[in-house]
What we know:
By secondary structure, the chain is of the alpha/beta class.
Amino acid sequence: MxxxxxxxxxxxxxxxxxxxxxxxxxxRVIGEIGLDRRGIEEFTQSSPDVVVIRSVGSVVSGxxxxxxxxxxxxxxxxxxxxxxxxxxxxxxxxxxxxxxxVAGNAGxxxxxxxxRAVAAGANYLSKDAADMLVADYFHRQRNLQxxxxxxxxSKREWEVLKxxxxxxxxxxxxxxLALSPKTVDTYRxxxxxxxxxxxxxxLVKLALQHGLTSVT
Length: 216
C-alpha cells in the first residue's frame, strides 16, 4: 500500500482527489496539509511514502515546499502537480529532488501513474512536462549550433575539413583516407552546405576565422 500525503497550496481542497486516490487498491491518502508552517509541523507527525504537492500558483511554491520537506526528511518522495511556467522552473524542481511532475491539465490518471512510479523508485514526467524539456533541449542545441556551426560536422567531415584547411587536394585526401575521390567530394559538399559556404576558399576562410588552423 502506498501511503500518500496531500500538501495543498492556495486554499485548495482535495476532497475529490482524495476519493479518487482512495479508490485505487494500492493507494491510501493518510492526510492533507497546507503549504504553511502549520502544515510542515503536521508533516513531521506523518509517515507518507509519497507527498503530492498541489499548487495552482506556480512551480516556485512547489519547489520551496519540496526543499522544506526534504530538509526534514531527505528520503521523502515528492510529486508536484502544478501549471508549467518554464523549462527552467521544471529543471529547478527536478534539481530540488522532485521525482514526479504532473502538469496541471494532465488529469488524475497521470497523477496516479506518477505516485506509483515514484513509490517504486522511478521518475515520472507527464507528457506536457516531458515535451517541454525535449523542446527546450533541441532549442538549446540549435542555438549552440548557430553559435558554433562546426559542431554539426561528423567525424569524417572534420577529417576532410582539416585536410582542406591544410591545403590537401581532393585526390590526396582520398588517398590518405582510403576513399574514392567521389566520396571525398560528397563529404566536401556536405560540410560546405552545413557551414553555409559555396566554395573551398570560403570554407578555409571560415575555418581560419574560428581558429581552426589545427583541427583535431
